[in-house]
Automatic annotation (TrEMBL):
Protein name as catalogued: protein-serine/threonine phosphatase
Keywords on record: Hydrolase, Magnesium, Manganese, Metal-binding, Protein phosphatase
Biological process (GO), any one: regulation of intracellular signal transduction
Family annotation (Gene3D superfamilies): PPM-type phosphatase domain
Pfam families registered for this protein in UniProt: PP2C (PF00481)
Region feature (Disordered): 1-39, 387-406
Transmembrane segments: none
Polar residues bias: start-end ranges: 397-406
Catalytic activity: O-phospho-L-threonyl-[protein] + H2O = L-threonyl-[protein] + phosphate; O-phospho-L-seryl-[protein] + H2O = L-seryl-[protein] + phosphate
Cofactor(s) listed in the protein's UniProt record: Mg(2+); Mn(2+)
Length: 406
């Protein structure tokens, strides 16, 4: 249930880079100037983001979606969320995401990814759509270098093995382009975190489950153990849950193999045998309970990756809504319970009703455990997403690799 060990234990990681005191003094003034410059830029960026119509990141709702997050009992709320209607200035497109931070600065990492990842995805998507072949390289000055470190990101040819679609070559190319943009945006985002001057991501990171819905196409990029679940109707018109993403835990066979090949270790603690964690080769730290994440650079040489798993679904009239949520929800409620709760609640308060139900379940199932942070986005598929009417409070049949978890 915990993403990683305490900040105190994480800080003891022996692989943490040490700075030279002499060079630190020599560069102190320039570093401070750069930090002030970066801080000013990020403040201006935040103000610009806050003013974008149709972009919701606080508790609230619109015609298309409902959002809600609540702090648990473990400290500051490290969850973040976003709904961005008319994403990329496209009237039929909406982006949604939830992000579950962990580690000493996890709350900062989650919010940074919430704010920056959609911008990178949109920039890459627009650039590829505008390029002659749809697959050309993009500007490193605008997006950051993509070639400075080796990566197992799939090539264009690998991406063409994506499920064949039945709606024509142009449609397939559109989905392929969006998928490739997802993969590259996640890579650029992780590199930006590594170089960020004000957020220490060495032992801190975040999950991300992010979807883009364009018309009837639904594409999801996922790292970590947050989850996307679809509420849909079966042939008997009964509401059922379909899991759209895989919880990328370290003990999944393919994840475990990669981590071990990179000399990372995977095992569970005696007091929580059901939670597999990733550890450094020669140190029982940091104990990360997922195989993929943004940040957590202490583990990036030992099998942890930020490459998203991409899943696609062509929506039909039977599909009613998608729920994105952090593991504070899934640790205590099944997929079917979540779908039933959302379906029975008023749309405007569906996310809040789900969070409150999860908190009650936490207190019943784990009376002596600290309730985890919870964040939920409910996207309703039959709504008119072109509407910009939003309410925000300032309070804090094709699926790829579905996981069996009813």
């Amino acid at each position: 249930m915990g993403s990683c060990l305490s900040g105190a234990e994480a800080s003891s990681v022996p692989y943490a880079p040490a700075s030279s005191s002499g060079s630190a003094k020599a560069k102190s003034s320039s570093r401070k100037r750069q930090m002030r410059k970066n801080s000013s830029f990020e403040s201006k960026m935040e103000m610009w983001l806050y003013r974008i119509p149709g972009r919701i990141f606080l508790n609230g709702s619109s015609d298309a979606a409902s959002l809600f997050t609540r702090q648990g009992k473990k400290g500051i709320n490290q969850d973040a969320m976003i709904v961005w209607e008319n994403f990329g200035s496209k009237t039929d497109t909406i982006l949604c995401g939830v992000f579950d931070g962990h580690g000493p600065f996890g709350h900062m990492v989650a919010k940074k990814v919430r704010d920056s990842l959609p911008l990178k995805l949109n920039a890459l998507w627009e650039l590829k759509v505008g390029s002659p072949d749809g697959h050309s390289d993009f500007s490193s000055s605008a997006m950051g270098s993509m070639n400075s470190e080796e990566t197992s990101i799939k090539t264009i040819e690998d991406l063409k093995t994506f499920p064949k679609l039945e709606f024509g070559e142009n449609h397939s190319d559109t989905i392929l382009t969006l998928k490739e943009s997802f993969v590259k945006a996640f890579k650029v985002m992780d590199k930006e975190l590594k170089l960020h001057p004000q957020i220490d991501c060495y032992c801190s990171g975040t999950t991300a489950v992010t979807l883009v819905k364009q018309g009837h196409d639904l594409l999801i990029g996922n790292v970590g153990d947050s989850r996307a679940v679809l509420g849909t109707r079966d042939k008997n018109n009964s509401l059922i849950a379909v899991q759209l993403t895989v919880d990328l835990k370290p003990d999944l066979p393919r994840e475990l193999e990669r981590i071990r090949l990179c000399r990372g270790r995977v095992f569970a603690l005696k007091n929580e045998p059901e939670v597999a964690r990733v550890w450094l080769p020669n140190c029982d730290s940091p104990g990360l309970a997922m195989a993929r994440a943004f940040g957590d650079f202490c583990l990036k040489d030992f099998g942890l990756i930020s490459i998203p798993e991409i899943s696609y679904r062509r929506l039909t009239d039977r599909d009613e809504f998608v729920v994105l949520a952090t593991d504070g929800i899934w640790d205590v409620l099944s997929n079917n319970e979540v779908v039933d709760i959302v379906a029975s609640a008023p749309r405007s308060s569906a996310a809040r009703t789900l969070v409150e139900s999860a908190i009650r379940a936490w207190r019943f199932k784990y009376p002596y455990a600290k309730v985890d942070d919870c964040a939920v986005v409910c996207l309703f598929l039959d709504s008119n997403s072109s509407s910009h009417a939003t309410s925000q409070s300032a309070s804090n049949e094709q699926i790829v690799s579905p996981q069996k978890n009813p």
